[in-house]
Amino acid sequence: MIKSIILTVLLSIAAAILQSTLIQKIAFLNVIPDLALCILVFSAYVNGTMTGQVSGFFSGLFIDLLSASPLGMNTLIRTIIGALAGVFKGTLFLDYIVMPAILCALATILKVLMIFLLHLIMGSVIHAYSFTESVFWIELALNVLSAPLLFLILRQFKPLLTGRN
Prior knowledge:
This protein is mainly α. It has eight helices and no strands.
């Protein structure tokens, strides 16, 4: 379990750095997919709740340190998403296209809803998504479109991510 958490956090950190540097240069209307979130969802789905929430905590903490968001916001959001994605372990058949897209879409929607809730509580300190603006819909579409490819790549690392062959 510790090995899978460490690898998930390292992959999420690499994805977060990639998102903030290279992918930012080729962004579609200044919106990029949240690859670190999709990596977390995959790891939590194949490993369960404990791995999901611990990986979400540490990857969220790093993203908080990397971004301008309030310290703890991404940590809270990704811990909850990791725990909830881990609940689905063994309950759904993970095909190659549909389930990765659905899981990442649900995680993106949950992330946006939690940011909106935190915005209501903390005010202008947290910038919330607007469901009427294109930023949310473009990020959702990019996450849904990138999820099958990302899950396909992560399946190659599944023995390392799960500790099982």
